[in-house]
Structures are given as structure tokens and as C-alpha cells.
DNA sequence: GTCTATATACCGATAGAC
DNA sequence: GTCTATCGGTATATAGAC
């Protein structure tokens, strides 16, 4: 349930975002969305063409927010290593998983080009942004010049996405943190 | 459809394993299982108490097979680095995702302790096995003694699990391979 | 062991009153 | 814009014939 100040359309999008995060697309029914939003069937089909259309609005917003917050952390001041460390260590609701990454396991999302596009674009943008930072670190001599920036960026994002899997499997955020620490130890510039 | 040599019970388990991999628990209906197995309702409820019971048999078998094949690769001959590289590089149906890891995104699996246990146990065992190998590498001087074996193991498994996410998002195995190469570059012993 | 018939609830969507 | 009524189809399970 949401504040009465939020429009019905907004409440529908927000409740869909929550349910997609918790249960995925296949596991989210219009009925559940409506109950959480405190709306009736008519409202949903007035504002949206159907479940896929509403899900698209929800996914787009979630993708935008994730990208914006990730870029904010990556653009924080510091050395390239520190900026990547800040991204890896930033506060996360680890056991809930990644609201964007989890959609890749949803066959109905992956099968629909419209639903899939924001997921693809978000992860690609974050990888590209991290690759730029690694490249900068190579130029500054903080990272070995032999490293491939795109590969390191992929490893960084994969460690985060896989960390969610390990954490959820074990029921504890510890596994996520362990993976992050392991990667950072490998990435750390040699002390002098 | 399966060979007539396979019992109905076996066909039910095998078709459930496939569907859990493709669509997850929530997205897999008894009807779909029965169609793929070429069996009727009666057979399923004769051999299994219901959907959760059949899913448990399927998940247990998938978990056993994954663990066995992972251990086989990890125990192949070579230096610790080579054994971990063999694990990271082993042939995978990348775009299908991990049949065990994907279950962590299924709320109904995570909510049922019986269904969840094999998922947790499998990933924990693989992490522990890799940690042993890292420890061996530290003793042999191939890895820096400052590294934490458990953390490196977590990073290795997270890179694999997250690599599936990146690959599925982008629709190409390239992102998986990039992450693996990135991690291996960071893990590689210094050349002499 | 396997089949068909049946049951209750929910799915996603539409119609039309207010 | 929002509501309720209704729809055909499916989800999961049970009953009982063969």
C-alpha cells in the first residue's frame, strides 16, 4: 500500500517493481499487483495495455534507477581502484538480489525484446563505465598495462551478480562480501 | 520425449529437470512436465506426492550431477592455477544458465528448506573444493600468501554465476568468457 | 501403474455500469 | 478513472475405472 498522494498509475508501477524483484515476471500476477497497489482490475487495464506493458514501465524505471545509482558511486572521487572498490562495497540489499540481474533468469522477459532491452542496456552501461575507469587506472600506472579493461569490468560486474547467487543460496550476505574481498585483493595495486 | 527404455518415473524426473532449468520452479507446471514426459496425471501423482516432491527429486539429481562434474574438472591434473582455470574455462551451455544457480532466484524454492538444501550444499561444496586448491597454491608459492583462500574461491564461483547473468542479458556467451579471462588475468602467477 | 473425469482456485483479459 | 461482473483457459490436486 502506498501514500494516497501517489496516483493509482504510480502505485501500480511501484507495486509491480517490488513484485518483479521478489518473484520475477512469471511469478507476478496482475491480482497480486492490484492487491499491493490497492487498485481494481479496471485501473490497471485503463492505464496499461496488460501485464507486459505494465512490466515494461516497471522494468524501465528500475533499470534507470540502478544505472543512475551505480554511476553515482563509480564517479565518486578517488583513484580508479578506489572507485571500483566503492562500487563493489556499496550498500546493497544482498539477499534480495539484483532487481535487474534477476530478470535474466526469467524466460518470458528474455523472450520479449522490449522487456529485455533495458536489462541488457543497464548491465552493458555499467560494464562500459567500469572499463573506462580501468583504462584510466592503466594510464595512471595503477593497474598493469597487460590487463584488458573490458575483461576486468566483466569480472567486476560478474562478481557482484554471482555474489547475489551465492548469498541467496547460503542465506547469508557473507558469501557476497567474501567474493568482493577476494576480487579486490586480486585487483589491488602493489603496495610500495 | 524420451526413449521407451526409460521408466515413466525416470521420464518425469528428467522432464522436470529440463523445465526447472529453462523456466524455474514457478514457471514449471505439472501439465508441461507431463506433456514432455509423455505421461498422464495419474502417473505423476502415483510416483510423487505432488509438484514439490517431484521437483525435489529433480533438483537433487541436478545438484549431484553438477557437483560431480565440477569436482572432476577441479581434480584434473595440473598446478592449482591450471585446475582453477580448467574449472573456469570448462565447456558450458552459457546461455542456458546454471541449472542450480538459477534456482536461487526462485522464491518458492528458497522458501522451502527441502528444495533449497541441495542448492546451498552444491555451491558450498564447490566453493570449499576451490578453497582447498587455492590453499595448496599458496603453500606451493603459486599464489600470494596474503590471499584468503575462501575469498578467492567465492570470487571464482561468483564470476561463473555472474557470468551467466551477463551472457543472458547480452544474448551472447562473450560476456561470460570476458569475465573469466579477466579473473584469470588477475589470478595468474607472475611469469618468470 | 496408468488413464480419464472432475474439482476448486487462479490466470490474464474484456465489458460495461458508474 | 475506477469499479464489478464475467470469460475461457490453466494450475494443482483428487477420485475412481481399468
Automatic annotation (TrEMBL), chains A, B:
UniProt DNA-binding region: 29-48
Keyword Manganese: no
Pfam family, one: TetR_N
Gene Ontology molecular functions: DNA binding
Domain HTH tetR-type: residue ranges: 6-66
Superkingdom as given in the UniProt entry: Bacteria
UniProt keyword list: DNA-binding, Transcription, Transcription regulation
PROSITE patterns registered for this protein in UniProt: HTH_TETR_2 (PS50977)
Name of the protein in question: TetR/AcrR family transcriptional regulator
Organism: Streptomyces roseirectus
Amino acid at each position: 500500500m502506498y501514500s494516497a498522494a501517489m496516483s493509482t498509475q504510480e502505485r501500480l508501477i511501484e507495486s509491480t517493481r517490488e513484485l518483479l524483484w521478489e518473484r520475477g515476471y512469471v511469478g507476478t500476477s496482475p491480482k497480486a499487483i492490484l492487491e499491493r497497489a490497492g487498485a481494481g482490475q479496471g485501473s490497471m487495464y485503463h492505464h496499461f495495455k496488460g501485464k507486459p506493458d505494465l512490466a515494461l514501465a516497471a522494468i524501465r524505471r528500475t533499470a534507470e534507477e540502478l544505472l543512475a545509482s551505480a554511476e553515482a558511486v563509480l564517479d565518486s572521487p578517488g583513484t580508479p581502484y578506489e572507485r571500483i572498490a566503492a562500487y563493489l562495497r556499496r550498500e546493497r540489499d544482498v539477499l534480495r538480489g539484483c532487481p535487474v540481474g534477476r530478470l535474466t533468469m526469467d524466460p518470458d522477459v528474455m523472450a520479449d525484446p522490449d522487456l529485455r532491452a533495458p536489462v541488457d542496456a543497464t548491465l552493458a552501461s555499467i560494464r562500459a563505465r567500469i572499463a573506462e575507469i580501468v583504462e584510466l587506472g592503466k594510464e595512471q600506472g595503477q593497474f598493469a598495462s597487460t590487463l584488458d579493461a573490458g575483461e576486468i569490468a566483466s569480472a567486476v560486474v560478474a562478481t557482484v551478480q554471482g555474489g547475489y547467487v551465492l548469498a541467496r543460496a547460503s542465506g547469508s550476505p557473507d558469501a557476497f562480501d567474501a567474493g568482493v574481498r577476494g576480487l579486490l585483493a586480486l585487483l589491488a595495486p602493489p603496495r610500495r
